[in-house]
Amino acid sequence: MNTKLDLADIQGNILRGYRREYVRHLILEVTDRTAARQFLGAAVDGGSDAVPEITRGVLWEVKPPFCFNIGITYEGLRALGTSSDNLKTFPSEFVQGMTKRAMKLGDFGASGPEKWPAPFDQPDRVHLIASVHSDVPEHLDIVEKQVTQAFTVLGVRNGRNLPEGKVFFGYVDGISQPRFEQVYDPEQKGVEEPIDPLGTALLGYPTKQEGVWFRVPSPRSLGFNGSFNAFRILAQDAAGFEAYLDQAADELMEHPDRDQLVDPNNLDRIGKGLDLRGALREVVAAQMCGRWRNGVPYELSPNAQWPDDAVSPTNFDYTHTSRCPAGSHLRRGNPRGGPIVQRIANYTRRLVRRGMSYGPDFDPQNPDTEERGLLGSFIGANIGAQFEAVMCDWINLGLQDPRITGANDPLLGANTPETSWFDMTLPDGGTIRLHGFPRLIYTRGGAYTFLPSLTAIKYLSELTT
Question: What residue range is the signal peptide (predicted)?
Fold first, then answer.
């Protein structure tokens, strides 16, 4: 069964990404139900001088000055007046919320909700997360002022693109994103990712698993064409990462198989001007991530960050003999069609990843302790089957491959120096096991939100209870 897609009913930034320089996430509380409903009604009807228009998933003839979208928590749906009978039709993980699901996500210790700053220390008050994307910072201020007329702003999180499309760990990011049936995205021209069914991201459509459709919350006008988002504030310990690369490189300098990792006569293929120790640092970074820091897949170019011939950033797969480590961040989060224990799960846990960096610039030569990181959105049709399954089973338990079971993702995982380990691959099929790396990414807040369709936003605006 195929369902015709109406892109005008889908909120933007789900099926196609925005290419804007800045984002502002407004964490909102509904304190005046009538004002909130009126705002949503006006936003879905095209906006006005006082209300920003909800951005739809259609292609633009003229690029708008800003994009505006909303996600609503379970408590937010209740605050807007959604009936208890309809609230019961939403998935349990969404109902419970991110705070109560923290252990499953690896959010404990320094990443635990008890350490999250306001407003995420009061999750019942977080009702909506409104996001504004623009190339002009002043537009963010204008929209925030409009939003404050109808909601109480509990907090603000600002993000930006870093130069060269990188994140604070130095990797080029945002290379691989799903492509969807019935969706033309000019930004993905030439991308060779497999085409995913709409049910990967939207409710009411077939999924990758034959005969499996995720339940659409009731009424259909509320649930159909909606999606779910795990909004995460992820602090990245860039200084700690660079320090660990130093530690690992020092250890590898004394390893008997060192020259299998780096050809000492071709260091320029790893990076211009690098010495042997510097080249080893980059190999460790590449194997931990699954990509070199310039974005080249390790699977396609295990011996060179700068290969002699260009390679595709997306057209590759994994095999039993892959040089890309099974425990790498890239391979854990998306094992593609490669060998995993749960073969039925290949390509079924795909997530739409959107994100921008926050915090001050980072200079690896002069590291500091300022907080910086990623404002991330992990979007899919089912939080439990996609986001939570990836975070628990693949990122933090390694259940997809016996070779990594018991080890956490080296970049995103809940690691401690006492127990962490990661196996680097060698050309002869052997491995070198690294130990002692710390947790490098800490959760600093977040919420599960429902991304309603335009029809659903209209429905919510017309509630009368």
Answer: none
Tokens standing for residue 160: 């930006």
Dist. CA 179–CA 181, nearest whole Å? 7
What count of residues does the chain have? 465
Bond into 438 cis (ω within 30):
no
State how far the Cα of 164 lies from the Cα of 126, in Å rounded to an integer: 34
Report DSSP letters for 369-380, one per residue. Answer: ----EEEEEEEE
* H or E element at residue 141: helix 137-147
Distance from C-alpha of 410 to C-alpha of 157, rounded to nearest angstrom: 26
For the record, the structure tokens of 113 come out as 């909700």
Residue 357 has pLDDT above 80, yes or no: yes
What is the average per-residue pLDDT within 433-460? 98
Query: Residues 218-228: what's their mean pLDDT?
Result: 98
- Give the Å distances, CA to CA, from 239 to 96, 175, 197, 314: 35, 24, 40, 29
Under the banding of pLDDT at 50, 70 and 90, the label for residue 191 is confident
| pTM of the predicted model as reported, rounded to 2 decimal places | 0.96
| Other beta carbons within 10 Å of 340 | 19
Strands (E), 39-142: 66-72, 128-134
Q: How are beta strands 179-180 and 195-196 bridged, if at all?
A: parallel
Residue 71 pairs in a beta bridge with 129
The rounded mean pLDDT for the chain is 96
In 3D space, the residue among 424, 325, 364, 358 whose CA is nearest the CA of residue 240 turns out to be 364
Q: C-alpha distances in angstroms, 97 versus 92, 113, 222, 445, 450?
A: 8, 11, 19, 12, 11
Among residues 454, 330, 443, 358, which one has the least CA distance to residue 104?
A: 443
* pLDDT in the model for residue 66: 98
